[in-house]
Amino acid sequence: MKFFWKYYFPALYGLAIYSTIRLLLDTVTGMKFWERPLWLNITEVLYCIVIAYLFIYSQRYLYRYFDSRWPDLKDHKKRLLRELTYVCLFSILFHNVFLVPLPALTDDGLQWFDVADVNVIPLLYALIYYGVSRSKTYLEAYVDNRTRLQQVMNDRLQAELKFLKAQLHPHFIFNALNTIYFQMDEDVSAAKKSVEQFSELLRYQLYDQQQTVSVRHEIQYLHSFINLQKVRASDKLQLDVHFDPELYDQQVYPLLLFPLVENAFKYVGGEYRLSIRATLKGNRICFTVENNIPGSHVPRKAGGIGLENLKRRLELLYTDKHTFTINKTENTFKVELSIPAVPVAYQIQEAE
């Protein structure tokens, strides 16, 4: 294909220009070109073909000049206008220099319609050739810019997700270490068990925040966290935990449910009731956490940065595919999260 465009196309281009000009001239003047001397027609055709090679190669040189002069395609409209201006001016100048003498030296000499045809017809062909030949360059540049933009967006989202993940750790680590510290004086074996649970929690937090895991792993993580929190919780705590076994074979992004549970343990008070429930409803995973709060003593923004981070992560990971609601009364604080259920088998099939 490259061989054709380089060696054969210019000849066809010149022949097309000559045929169009000849047709218009004969229509206007009533001349019949086949009645002219054969050598004259052949000479004109060969001349136009040679000029076409020179013009096409000059155009390609102009394109290389454009690419080197204006490599940035951000302002593509301005660049396109510049290129078209250069192409038009070059085409008019080139064809007036090389083609106008042709009708001036043949037939009945140079007429006004000769000048019009020699300027208009080649210019139209030059613009068509420009559109066809440059469309690939602009399309590749557009695709490249879109790819770069998408990569920048992905890098930004990954950085933001890592930042949000990092914010989960400090408060949780502080509380866990504080709990283990006081256990050391009262029950060493219990402290050892807490350390083991704590290490499991930290290990789970190393999961990539953009790679899904089975809900079974997420629930195991929550159980470890809940057991660790029971140690430091008040004896008044009335805990109700239910995880639907049908969820175990579903997929979810790690640590999405954790901020809800951590927030509930942090602010539970009043009658000290805390309910944690996860169920599978159709093709949705529904997670609900409800806890009593100590009336007017609860902070105005119960949950603080944890729930705000969760909202942002949900926007990044489940854009327009999740629901997240918060209902606060005088004595209770309830959050409900619903996200798409994706079976493990589907994930494996998609990866293959």
UniProtKB/TrEMBL annotation:
What are the annotated GO cellular component locations?
membrane
Q: Where are the transmembrane segments?
A: 7-25, 45-63, 84-104, 110-132
Q: Which Gene3D superfamilies match?
A: Histidine kinase-like ATPase, C-terminal domain
InterPro entries in UniProt: Bact_2-comp_sensor_kinase, HATPase_C_sf, Sig_transdc_His_kin_internal
Record domain Signal transduction histidine kinase internal region: where: 159-237
Keywords annotated in UniProt: Kinase, Membrane, Transferase, Transmembrane, Transmembrane helix
**MF terms in GO:** phosphorelay sensor kinase activity
- Could you tell me what this protein is called? Histidine kinase
Species: Chitinophaga tropicalis
